[in-house]
Amino acid sequence: MTTFDLMSYGPLGEAVKSAMPTSEADPIGVWAASLSLYSAAISRRVRLDNRRPVVVWTVLAGRSAIGRKGYALGTASALLGKPIGGFIHSRKRSGVSSGPSLVDMLSGLELDTMGADGGIDGRCVLLEEEWASVLKDQKKCSKFSTFFRTAWDGKPISNRTKKDGLQSVARPLLGFHAHITPGEWGKYVSSSEALGGSYNRLLPVLVERSKMLPYDNQPQVPDTSALKEAYEWAEEEDRVMRFSVEAGERFDEIRAIVEDRMAELPELLASYMERSAEQVQRVSAVLSATEMKEEVCRDAVEAAWAFVSFSMASVEKLVKDAASNSGGAKPMTTPEDLIRGVLKRCGGEAKASDLLRPLWGRLNAAAIKEAVEGMDDVEMWTEKTSGRGAPKLMYRLIEASEEPSQANAKVIDIDQLRGKAKPIQTPPVASNIFEGLI
User: pTM score, two decimals?
Assistant: First the structure.
C-alpha cells in the first residue's frame, strides 16, 4: 500500500485514483490541490462544530518541470470541473500581496452578492502558481501575514482607507493553494514569519513526477457525479461537522502524537506543526462532506492524519535541506545553541534584553524562556532594580563543573511559567509514524 493509498478516501479519493493513469502528476500533489479547491467551494455552509472554517490550505513543493506542480493543479481542476467548475472559474484569484488588498478583495466579493438569491457569498480561492514572486512583495506589507493568518482562523479582518473608509469582512471564506521549488522555499519562507505562525496554517507536500507518458496522451476525466451530488448537499443548508465517539478518541491520540513530536524538534521546525491537529480535523471534515455525512468517522480521521503527517515530514525535510544546502549555509542551529552562543559572547551572563537583541528575528522573549527551562547549563532569575523599576530578568551560563548559584533558587517553576499541565504521554502507535513518509 502506497502513502497515497493511506490518505485517499471517499468519492474524492476515488476520483483522484481514476485520473492518475493519464496524468504525470504526483498523486499526492493532485490530492492536495483537490482538497484546497473542494474545501474552499464548500466553506460557505460547512463548518466545524467549534464554528471554525473547513478550508484546507496546501502548497506543492517540487523542482521546476520534474515536480509537475502545474500538472497536479491541472488534473485536480479537470476532475473537479463538473462538481465545482463554476466556483473555480468565478472565484479564483492570484497576486494578492498586501493586507489591505486582501481585505478589499474579500469585501468586494461580499458586496457583489448582497441581495442575491443565495445570500452573501464571499468565497474565494487564491491560486499562486508562482508563489515565490508573491512572497517577495508580501514581505513589504506589515499587515499581510496578520490578515492572512486571521482569515484561515475564520475571524474578522478589517482595514480603513481614505477613499472607502472602513472595509471589514466578518467571516472570511478564503481558500489557498500555492506552488514553490525547494530552493525558493529556503530563500523566501523566512524563519521569523514561521515562528510568528504564518506558515503553520499551510500544508506543504513534496511532489515529483509520477510517470512519463507519450506526448499524445489524452488525460481522462473520471466520473465525478458523486462529488457533484455531495457539493449540492453541502450548499443546501448549514452543515456542522462532528466527530463520532471513535473518531474523537483517535483525534485525541493524534493530538498527543503531534505535541510529543513538536517537543523533540527545534522551535523553528515545531512552529510549522503547531496546527497539525486542527488540520487533521479540517481534512477529515472535508472528506466526510464528500460522503454527505456530518458525522466524521474514524477512517476519515486516519486518512486525514496520513496526509497531514506526510506534510509534517515534508516540512521537516524542506527546512533541514534549506538550512544545510541553500547557498552553502551552515546546518540549522537549535535555539539552545543560539542562547549559549550569545551568553558566551556576553561573558557568561546577560540581562534578558541583552540576550534578546542579537536573537531578534530568530527567537522572541517567550521562546528564550521556554528553551532555558529545559537547559541544565543555563539558569534564570530576577533581580530587583533601584527605584521603582520592574525587576530585571537575568540569564547565566553554568559551567559543567559548577553548581547552580543561589540565584538559581529563584527560578520560577516551569509548570507555573508555562501555565500548562505535564505533557501527554505518546500512545504506542506513535513510534514510527514518520517512517517511510518521504
Answer: 0.75
